[in-house]
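Lecture notes, unit on protein representations.

Consider one protein chain, 461 amino acids long.
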Amino acid sequence: MKVCLLIPDGIGIRNYLYSNIIPLLNDRAVQIAVWHSLDKAVMKETERINPKMNFEEYQFRFYKEDPFPRFLRDCVGYARLMVNSKIEDNPTILDNWLPKKNFKGKVSNFLAKKLGGTFDNLDKITKVDTIIQHQNRKSSAYKQYKEDLKKIKPDVILCTHQREPNAGIAMLAANDLGIKTVTAIFSWDNLPKGRLPMRAQNYLVWSNYMRSELLKYFPDIKEESIQITGTPQFDFYSNKNLIQSKEEFAAEYGLDPSKRWVCFSGDDSLTSPHDPIYLKDIGEALDQAEDLEILFRPVPVEGFERYQSVLDKYPFIKTLVPKWKKGELWNKFFPYPEDIAVLVNLAYHADTVINVGSTMALDFSQFNKPGLYVNYEVDKNHPWSIERVYKFQHFKTFKDLDAVGWINSKDEILPMVRKAINTPDELAKDRLKWKERIVFQDLESSAAQRIVNFLTPSTIQ
């Protein structure tokens, strides 16, 4: 049996190359092909962490989409946002319609919005999706991917990033060749955004909650084609070999092991433009708390120059620079394996994490630590609004749950941090229920094991 991992960009590196998926497949004597567009350094890192891994490599090439199916894809993108916003009665879903900068792009977006606005139900959208697939079958990309797949000869192909359009064309070619196709939903916020420009025979999701979302937003997908596996990104937290003592971790990063640690995880400047202000407020609030140290983890795909004045003013804020290799575009950045250990130790040793709506609250919940979400405006004249952020659809996972602690003003920063440290059981009391709602986990197997079991059922002893 031969399994092909299609990794079209850096999104799949940590979950699929650095996890146990390839070693588990190797243990079952399954042939493995990795079809990727990644930097050679990524593959060297993969081999370095597990020299016994055995797989073939094939280059995944990108092609310019033909104009007509590309335009229709944009129309469908807007139509899905419009329909999903009506389904959920949530206008913030339309915030995911991103503007294009040049004149040609602006005109295309205007026309796509006009035409897409006429696709006012999911049946119409599904029909247009069928037209897009028909058009893609005429493309040079489709023909080339067919030839590539004939060389690779997989029995099953798993695409690690369901949003990449070229990967969607490759999966279409695989479907037409009779190859079993599987894709994994990457993030907890993807599905309301309608970002699924591909169809596979099978879909791997994080939880029953995500399965319900997939069925609601994509009714052409059958329930029996959806498999609940969890996601490998949280498997690492159960690997005790990654955990250092607090003293070892402190010595490596210049921290004070005698202090209680509070993590602040930054977002990118588009997602959270006011993060430097929030970090400044946290610095002011905790400046006189001599028993505390702030561990600042910047978002990996940006620098942290916009925080520099805050870091200079408050030296007790220690920056833990993510161990990532920088790329020209965000999808060309990639983590080194050592960055996984940094995340695990942060969640294990810090008492709480503060941020604006990040999944880091889920990371900390792996060790039953409460997360704190900043929830106050700092510039009411700015087009970005934190009040609107928490109306985004993926935060509906909080429904009926006390999932995180809320910092509703600058004055609440220190009291909420003290509460997280001294009486964590009184804060975010339902954080484990929230985690279980979003991410399926059990003690019997890891997400990697469940994915491998699904991909290779005939090899299970």
